[in-house]
Design brief:
Elements (H helix, E strand, L loop, with lengths): L31 H19 L4 E2 L2 E2 L1 E4 L4 E4 L2 E3 L4 H22 L2 H5 L2 H17 L2 H9 L4 H26 L5 H9 L5 H21 L1 H7 L2 H4 L10 E4 L1 H4 L24 H4 L20 H13 L6 E4 L1 H6 L3 H8 L2 H22 L4 E7 L6 E4 L2 E12 L5 E8 L5 E3 L5 E3 L3 E12 L26 E11 L6 E10 L2
Antiparallel strand pairs: 1-2, 3-4, 4-5, 6-7, 8-10, 9-10, 10-14, 11-13, 11-15, 12-14, 15-16
Length: 491
């Protein structure tokens, strides 16, 4: 019998789970969007690097003092009890992101994200030292030489200097930056301060110098869920295929329609200037960070060719499909969705500003001392012990009076009044309240203490009685707190 022929199976194809990175050499670009991008870079970095050096009332204007558990922001002092404002800040950030994304896509990514900002700064340093795109490609392809080594060393030294200064500034928001600098010069930095300066510096150096678009493409979650915040009336960077296709090279003297061509000359400038290396002509991709570099690059080519600008532009899917003019497009951009986001955002901002303006600088915590039982301090005199914590969250030293109401003859003893509390400080007091058991006399407010219960002999009923502490500033009667507590009369 003839032997059966067994067909040879082809070897299975190996698929890589991670694409090997091809280094991107972005080309320098100039234009309207580039100017906006650099304006925001200057603004954000002036704020970041400059704020820690500003003074306010003899201290650093913006300081997050984790050790003392106080956050100073100019004239405001936030304590752990003010964590609600952190929640509001997070809500405002989320709503702002929703609003900006619904209006014009990844505006945050393209113009203000720290990854984008520092990548742009590091790329600018790279261009100044190594040259523009072609010069950098040739330098990387050249064999190692002394000149290449010195150029690369100078670039990395400049990168590391910026990164280290960034780490120092970041830690300067949590430790007074002047003291931090003095201790850094004298090699007296603590281990945690040294760690965070180096950690943040190396993170900046690695992300902006080496990883760059990899952070946006693979690490940033926003790139993945941005599409759920888009709709057909969201402004996105779009290539006008109807106008641009079919693409092809030609001389300036040739009219494209005479040769059956669109306005795209297939120069690939839009790809060369893209910081993530995508071709916007293939449609909107999640790697696009919305920086507008391709718009600036394409507009310069259109200008040289004598064609109208806007082959690549910010537009909406509906405007492109239905031929809306600019006015109609913007009317649809500011639709009910974005108006609701704006209204909610403004409402929260207004409530927050009002809350901060009316914020009571006095916080009080009253705890009845469980270690000291209610007792008879003298014949017929009942005494309870309390721990009262006064928090003066203002940067003005104040004096406070403490009184209690709710029982006849109730008086505060064991503490000298008024009580002084330094600016932005707390003071813990141990004080005693005393009351005469037979119920004679009046309460501290001049009343008869009708809320206290008495038996048939006129004595206070044993058990728990509700009372109220009133703590009031001497210099400002609007600064007052009413705290509920209880007074125990023993059997």
């Amino acid at each position: 019998m003839p032997h059966a022929v067994i067909p040879i199976q082809p070897a299975p194809e190996e698929l890589a789970l991670y694409e090997i990175r091809k280094k991107i050499y972005p080309r320098a670009v100039h234009g309207w969007f580039a100017k906006w991008r650099w304006a925001l870079i200057f603004l954000t970095q002036a704020v970041f690097y400059g704020l820690p050096w500003l003074g306010w009332n003899g201290r650093q204007a913006v300081l997050f003092d984790l050790g003392a558990r106080k956050f100073y922001i100019f004239g405001l002092v936030f304590w752990p009890q003010d964590v609600i404002y952190l929640s509001i800040l997070l809500i405002l950030s989320a709503l702002s992101l929703f609003l900006f994304t619904a209006v014009a896509g990844r505006l945050w990514c393209g113009y203000a994200c720290p990854q984008t900002v520092y990548t742009e700064i590091f790329s600018w340093i790279e261009r100044k030292i190594e040259g523009d795109r072609l010069a950098r490609i040739r330098l990387d392809a050249a064999p190692l030489s002394l000149e290449k080594f010195l150029i690369k060393a100078l670039k990395h030294a400049a990168w590391f200097t910026v990164a280290l200064w960034t780490g120092y500034t970041f830690v300067g928001y949590f430790t007074p930056i002047h003291d931090l600098g003095i201790r850094g010069i004298t090699w007296e930095l603590g281990p945690w301060e040294s760690f965070w300066i180096l950690f943040y510096g190396f993170a900046t150096y690695g992300n902006a110098g080496f990883m760059r678009e990899q952070v946006c493409k693979y690490m940033c979650p926003y790139a993945r869920f941005q599409s759920v915040m888009f709709d057909k009336d969201t402004l996105v960077i779009t290539y006008d295929r109807e106008r641009g296709e079919p693409r092809g090279s030609r001389s300036k003297a040739v009219k494209p329609r005479d040769r059956g061509l669109g306005d795209c000359v297939d120069c690939s400038i839009c790809v060369q200037v893209c910081p993530t290396g995508i071709d916007i002509r293939n449609g909107l991709q999640y790697e696009c960070i919305g920086c507008g570099a391709c718009i600036d690059g394409c507009n310069r080519v259109m200008d040289k060719m004598g064609y109208p600008p806007g082959l690549i532009r910010y537009t909406t899917e509906n405007a492109l499909a239905r031929g809306y003019d600019t006015k109609a497009m913007w009317r649809r951009v500011f639709r009910s969705r974005t108006l609701v986001y704006t209204a909610v955002l403004l409402a929260i901002v207004g409530v927050t500003v009002g809350s901060l303006a009316m914020k009571n600088p006095l916080k009080v915590d009253v705890i009845r001392d469980r270690g000291a039982l209610a007792r008879e301090a003298a014949p017929g005199v009942i005494e309870n012990v309390y721990r009262v914590q006064l928090m003066n969250t203002d940067e003005t030293p104040r004096q406070f009076t403490i009184r209690a109401e709710g029982m006849p003859g109730l008086k505060v003893v064991g503490v000298d009044q008024p009580v002084a509390v330094a600016a932005a400080q707390t003071r813990l007091l141990a004080l005693r309240l005393q009351v005469i058991r037979d119920g004679e006399g009046t309460d501290s407010a001049g009343g008869t203490g009708e809320h206290a219960q008495h038996d048939e002999h006129g004595l206070l009923d044993p058990g728990m009685h509700k009372i109220e502490f009133i703590i009031e500033a001497v210099d400002d009667h609007q600064v007052v707190r009413h705290e509920q507590s209880s007074f125990i009369v023993p059997h």
